[in-house]
Specification:
about 0% helix, elongated, 2 domains
Length: about 170
């Protein structure tokens, strides 16, 4: 990467911006510390403050207020009728989904959470095989979440576990 901007300070340190033909941008100090690499993306990167917390000031959009912002750490969509362990239809930070039994699934994370204290939301479609039962989902209360995985269930309105063709899960921490 060729240096395209170098800004010195009175303390003898410099902030170097460099880029290459792929569109990647790298920011480093003169000593090579605090490296930030920004991949070739479209949009605006806004960063203020010195903490790892995401705040409204770091985003570009119509958000308001000063409440902290927490991101989705894992998500997936899968077919709950598929037996065995399978890749999700779509997702992020989910390696696989295991159908343990009717309406009972293990969501396996690609990168583990820091601990098991996260929130999970489960949504479902509207039944399978002509079923008119509406479904809902939740964490499987008989199996505590772990940093590596969470078990969820899909239930009909009678609270009986039932498969659904479309199950969506998000994990927020």
């Amino acid at each position: 990467m060729a240096s395209i901007i170098s800004a010195g300070t009175s303390l003898g340190t410099a902030l170097n911006f460099s880029g290459d033909t792929s569109g990647n941008l790298q920011l480093t100090t003169q000593a090579g510390a605090n490296v930030i690499t920004v991949p070739n993306v479209t949009g605006t990167l806004v960063s203020t403050g010195s903490t790892a917390a995401v705040t409204p000031a770091m985003l570009t959009g119509a958000q308001t207020g000063s409440a902290p912002i927490y991101g989705v750490r894992a998500w997936c969509t899968f077919n709950g009728t598929t037996a065995g362990t399978n890749a999700p239809i779509a997702g992020g930070n989910v390696t696989s989904v295991t159908r343990n039994s009717t309406g009972n699934y293990t969501i396996n994370f690609t990168t583990a959470m820091s601990d098991a204290n996260y929130a999970v939301s489960v949504t479902t479609g509207s039944g399978i095989g002509g079923s008119t039962n509406a479904h809902f989902g939740s964490i499987d209360s008989s199996n505590a979440p772990t940093a590596a995985a969470v078990r969820v269930v899909t239930l009909n309105l009678s609270s009986a576990q039932e498969d659904d063709t479309v199950v969506k899960v998000i994990v927020i921490k």
